[in-house]
TrEMBL record:
Keyword annotations from UniProtKB, A to Z: Nitrate assimilation
Organism: Providencia manganoxydans
PANTHER family with a match to the protein in the record: NITRATE REDUCTASE MOLYBDENUM COFACTOR ASSEMBLY CHAPERONE, NITRATE REDUCTASE MOLYBDENUM COFACTOR ASSEMBLY CHAPERONE NARJ
Pfam families xrefs: Nitrate_red_del (PF02613)
Protein name: Nitrate reductase molybdenum cofactor assembly chaperone
Top-level taxon: Bacteria
Length: 241
């Protein structure tokens, strides 16, 4: 799907290469017959608005949106497994799916990064691609509504992804739920994530590192609530496409 390829680039960290090739993205979308004309127009308008910004401003906005807190993370398993042990195995299973499709990631790339997952789906048949999007539709809808309430234009990309998924989910149905969510990118919330207890190496207060990690995670859990989804057996759980 052409549109999916374009969206995967638009959801990645903004670079000069994207700015230099914006006309090529728009030209490609003119051939994206998998989307209604209205949805194609939304993507084109997003590209224009994004690339009219100064690159440094766009990069700063991107980091503010997706790299602070967990609520808008582009790591899919953040919304599925959280910090559970099953996350590691899910990563391995998804990597195996990528390898079977001929995709090799570097040691620094995470397989559940949404743009990477979208790139993977473009290599599958149309039916499998739609199924792969449908499997993550609950996450897409949640991110769409969170971005919309944040006032970010990036919600457009998630609205289009939901359209491509052919899911019956409507992000607006989550509006009331999202309004009640505590913010996880405030200074207090971020401090709760990164704060470390004072380590006592001698005496009765000494504790092992594992206990410190558990306490750290509990502090974060009390600060913000992450919604987790069961996306079935098609996303990093060993299912074959």
């Amino acid at each position: 799907m052409i549109a999916l390829k374009v969206i995967s680039h638009l959801l990645d960290y903004p670079t000069q290469e994207l700015w230099d090739n914006r006309s090529e993205l728009i030209d490609a979308l003119q051939e994206a017959d998998e989307l209604p004309v209205t949805q194609v127009a939304k993507l084109m308008a997003f590209i224009h608005r994004l690339t009219q910004q100064e690159l440094l401003d766009a990069q700063s906005h991107y980091s503010e949106l997706f790299d602070r807190g967990r609520a808008r993370s582009l790591l899919l398993f953040e919304h599925v497994h959280g910090e559970s042990r099953s996350r590691g195995q899910a990563m391995v299973d998804l990597l195996n799916q990528y390898q079977q499709a001929g995709i090799t990631l570097s040691s620094r790339e995470l397989p559940d990064y949404l743009p990477t997952y979208l790139e993977y789906l473009t290599l599958l048949s149309t039916t499998e691609c739609i199924e792969g999007l449908n499997n993550i539709a609950p996450i897409l809808a949640l991110l769409a509504e969170r971005l919309k309430q944040r006032g970010s234009d990036y919600h457009t990309l998630f609205d289009v992804l939901l359209c491509l998924s052919q899911s019956e989910l409507d992000a607006s149905q989550l509006a009331a739920q999202v309004e009640k969510e505590p913010l996880d990118d405030t200074p207090a919330a971020l401090d709760a994530v990164w704060e470390e207890e004072q380590v006592t190496f001698l005496g009765e207060g000494a504790q092992c590192g594992n206990n410190k990690i558990i306490q750290h995670q509990r502090r974060f859990a009390q600060e913000t609530k992450v919604q987790y989804f069961n996306v079935g057996n098609s996303l990093g759980t060993g299912a074959q496409k």
